[in-house]
Amino acid sequence: MSVTARFQQRDGHYGQVQSRKPREIAYRALLAREAGRGFIEDLLEAELAGTRLAAADRHLAQELAFGVVRWQAPLDWLIEQKAEGRRQRPEVQVLLRLGLYQLFWLDRVPDHAAVFETVALAPPGPARFVNAVLRAYTREREAARATLEELKRTDPAWGWSHPAWLVERWTARWGEVETRRLLEWNNQPARTFARVNTLVADPAQLLERWRAEDVDYDFRRYDWTPENLVFELRAHPPLYRLESFQKGWFYVQDPSTLLAPHLLDPQPGERILDLCAAPGGKTTRLAQMVDNDLHLVAVEPSESRRRRLVENCERLGAECTAVAFLAEAPFRGFDRVLVDAPCSNTG
To answer: Quick check: pTM over 0.85?
Structure first.
């Protein structure tokens, strides 16, 4: 049975199957993102749920999904060079991005595997076009790579796949040389960090549990974080399957996002308003900093992200937190207000 035959069409979308390969999983998550059904990290996690992939296959699915999003602009530029102005169907555009990402950014993937596995996911009609584009770039790769490098210099927003407004802001603030360095750094695969949640476990308990769960970690310390709060996770099983994760002993969080709670400096008994609070990393850190001795109102305009906020507050034991709709939020009577929009991860 072909790969495509294992999908069942349902309401215009592919239905879930039990046995899938990493490229299939990445493709489905990317196609859902293209349809505007959520953030890629949430969509990919939903696709991975219920699968029993080997660690290497799970990593490949993550690398493909996140890598395509990370480099979407130059990938689309490559597609435009072969499309001759024709707008592609969403599934074809996503498949071409997926195949081209493997050819240009994943040197360890053989060309034949990248082409064959991607074409196998294509609907019967467009499969010939997908195959032709990918095979053409296997022959023209070096020239295309040189052009992509030139694009980084002449049009950094396209070349580095960043919003034009953000590149303009950074250039005005930091200059062209520093902006290019920042763009290059920002397109590196993100490292995984975890914050120990002392509302339910202390660092020693967590580290002992991680060793039993085969989590490889390292200590990290920053000017705005106390000792033994942040750890870099170097290797680990799927985090959502870990008992330490399910019990709320830690939260996956980039250290930069801990700077805002540090600067806010909550004091016991205060009333604090956290706007744009999802998914809850800063909210739950505020609760942790004063051992839940706060009146904390967390507001999130997005309904789907608000559900994630509620789940994280419950899992992490942030009992002092009330999650509110934007229209319900009181905007007076607070000692401190946190508004991190855009998120501090933006830079």
So the answer is: no
